[in-house]
Design a protein that fits this description.
Dihydrodipicolinate Reductase, domain 2, six-stranded parallel beta sheet, binds 6-O-phosphono-beta-D-glucopyranose, alpha/beta, Rossmann fold
Length: 491
């Protein structure tokens, strides 16, 4: 690894993501002494603004989005002076030249470019950088999602950037990979001896991945309509989680080894067809209802017209390889769910033979033997819970078992450690050139290949979103999707 980049160049600097996440993350890195000396942040957007005006906006954003106890006037002052603002529109060579002047003399110390703009601007922006002489072997470029809306368009985006940057200079952001809890999946699987021997079709009945959000589309309908939950959440965040759960052990924790294993898992996803989408997928769209006691409107009302975009999706996926043969992965995600809750559930199989009598007969005087369940809660709380069987105390002749929970609260175990914004990790890794937590081109393509099979299936089979009242876990068909197999969603 080389010295960290001395300059950070942000496109889309007046946008929401920059205000909410990127500037607060950079501030936190500065506050913790993690930015190089003499670090320069060049912010760029289409609006014409002075350095001073832009700095004022950044400070206002910090005060709005940082926890009150994080904001320190002295650090904020140092942060302000690191920032310069340069208006740039794609295609405007004079503005790119002005940008280059600001970087003058610093290029050899590394430049990290961050594109937080609509993807249609990625390639023109990269071209502008090239024409202004800003691309050297020490320049890196990070891109926010969405990278395309299907495999073909993602290839175009990647070709556009790939024409000017080598793959090891390209950092595709999936902010879920910056979350501590997602990285902790690697620690859980590969830092402990007891899970890995059971992490396969012999011991695991099925896997569930749920990412529930209570929010609707406020203010984002123009982006979201026509995109939908499958492309917005499954194509990236949920498939990244799935790949980490499903992958083989990487040889070591480095960008090539980890991503080689993830892409193999992604390529093993069984494509859907116009037949299987009918039974293995559910689309939903929220209608008016109540979420956590608040009355909310429906998606079509927010949009102002009827729409075929799904705000909820549930899927039954298979990873067709040796390890996972026959193990369903149930995925679901949606807006206007009853709770903001993201978790992974590993449902183990029952014990092979019950010495306590017949299992599964809890109600009729059976022993109460239940299969083990491992619950990994990603957010809002962070915990790992393992449901195990224990003898219920008592003098009955027949041993009665009861589920008890081995409970590791990560929040409690690491109390005193600040919860970091996912972007802090990612920006730090970008500056340092460590791509382990970024998505490689072949991963994006494997993800889109599977997603395209679902979208094509939906088109062929004319699968439309079913209505669900806001405040529910999707349409009733999502419950049927898993209950048909004799399982149920963990709640
Ligand atoms: C984004 C999606 O990528 O992730 C949003 O575009 C979604 O629709 C968000 O709300 C969820 O992220 P988090 O970190 O709040 O779970």
């Amino acid at each position: 690894m080389t010295e960290p980049s001395a300059t950070f160049l942000l496109f889309g600097a007046t946008g929401d993501l920059a205000r909410r996440m990127i500037f607060p993350s950079l501030y936190n890195l500065l506050s913790d002494g993690l930015l190089p000396d003499d670090f320069l942040i060049i912010a760029s957007g289409r609006s014409d603004m002075s350095d001073e005006d832009f700095r004022g906006d950044v400070c206002a954003a910090l005060q709005q989005f940082l926890p009150a106890d994080r904001y320190e006037a002295e650090v904020a002052e140092r942060f302000r002076t690191m920032i310069q603002y340069q208006p740039v529109e794609a295609g405007n060579a004079a503005q790119f030249a002005a940008l280059a002047e600001r970087v003058d003399g610093r290029l050899e110390r590394g430049l990290s470019v961050y594109l937080s703009t609509p993807p249609s601007l990625f390639a023109p922006t990269a071209q502008g950088l090239a024409d202004a002489g800003l691309i050297t072997p020490r320049t890196r470029i990070a891109m926010e999602k969405p990278i395309g809306k299907d495999l073909a368009s993602s290839r175009q985006v990647n070709d556009g950037i790939g024409a000017l940057f080598a793959e090891d200079q390209i950092f595709r952001v999936d902010h879920y990979l910056g979350k501590e809890t997602v990285q902790n999946l690697l620690a859980l699987r590969f830092g402990n001896v007891m899970f890995e021997p059971l992490w396969n079709a012999t011991a695991i009945d099925h896997v569930q991945i749920t990412v529930g959000e209570t929010v609707g589309l406020e203010g984002r309908v123009s982006y979201y309509d026509g995109v939908g939950a499958l492309r917005d959440m499954v194509q990236n965040h949920m498939l990244q989680i799935l790949s980490i759960i499903a992958m083989e052990p990487p040889a070591r924790m480095d960008p090539t080894s980890v991503r080689d294993e993830k892409v193999k898992a992604l390529r093993s996803l069984r494509p859907m067809t116009d037949e299987t989408v009918k039974t293995h997928s559910v689309r939903g769209q929220y209608t008016p209802g109540a979420v956590q006691g608040q009355i909310v409107t429906g998606y079509a009302d927010e949009l102002g017209k009827p729409s075929d975009t799904e705000t909820f999706v549930a899927l039954k996926a298979y990873v067709d390889n040796w390890r996972w043969q026959g193990v369903p992965f149930y995925l679901r995600t949606g807006k206007r769910m009853p709770a903001r809750q993201s978790e992974i559930v590993i449902q183990f199989k029952p014990v092979r033979h019950s010495i306590f009598g017949r299992d599964g007969q809890n109600a009729g005087g059976g022993t109460g033997l239940e299969p083990n369940t491992l619950v990994i809660r990603l957010q809002p709380e962070e915990y790992i819970r393992l449901q195990i069987m224990s003898k219920r105390p008592g003098l009955e002749q027949q041993v009665r078992l009861e589920e008890v929970t081995l409970d590791v609260s990560l929040t409690a175990a690491f109390a005193g450690q600040r919860r970091r914004i996912a972007y802090e990790r990612l920006i730090l890794d970008l500056l340092a050139g460590n791509a382990t937590l970024f998505v490689r081109r072949d991963e994006v393509e494997a993800q889109w290949t599977w997603i395209d099979s679902i979208i094509d299936g939906w088109k062929e089979a004319n699968v439309k979103p079913a209505a669900y009242s806001s405040g529910n876990w999707g349409p009733s068909s999502a419950i049927a999707l898993i209950e048909r197999d004799g399982a149920s969603w963990h709640e």
